[in-house]
Structure formats: C-alpha cells, structure tokens
Here is the input.
Amino acid sequence: MISLSNGKSSKDSMVSKKKFNLADYELVKITWNDAQDHETGWTDLNKAKKHKLAAVVSIGWILSQTDKQIILVGDFIPEDGTTSRITIIPKDWCQTITTLVDGKDGS
Here is the structure.
C-alpha cells in the first residue's frame, strides 16, 4: 500500500464513493402498528386480553418498497453513500403514509 500526499492510502483512493442525492428519495411520515412484547411470567388472563399493538409514527426516506414492505431510513451521509436507522415496515401494518417531500426531484 502506498501513502499519498493527502494522507490516504492508494487503497482508499481506489474505492469509489457512491453519493446519495436526497432529492431522489421520498420523505414520508408513516403511522403503523407494531407487535409488542410484554412482561414474562404469569399474567392474569383478563390483563393479557387488554394488551394492544404499539402505535408507531416513523418519519424517514423511502429507500425502496415492494408490494409487501417499505424500507425506511432515518439518516443519510450523502457524501459517502451511507445510511442508518433502517426500519423495514410490512405494508399491511401501515395505517397511513403521508408524503412530506416528493422524491425524484418532485419536491
């Protein structure tokens, strides 16, 4: 490996970084129901019957979607093409999907 004058190695220079353009992704607010786990151990049946789904509100960019799921991401680093806070939501769990900013530069 060769050190370059900018302090990076030749290996670093060979890796091409894919850049994200946030204007290509739709920013949405999704309200959906999630499964919920409750305490373990013995529970009264009447109390168990009162358990509910977790009502969730998620805001993020739709990275991709199919007829079964939406992949939503909460954070991007556009310069290096990385993302975090990835949530995969089953579409049939979604109650509403509200577009906040259109993708594909449709603003």
Q: What stands out?
A: The CA atoms of residues 69 and 91 lie 5 Å apart. The mean pLDDT is 84. The longest helix spans residues 10-14. Residues 16-101 form one domain.
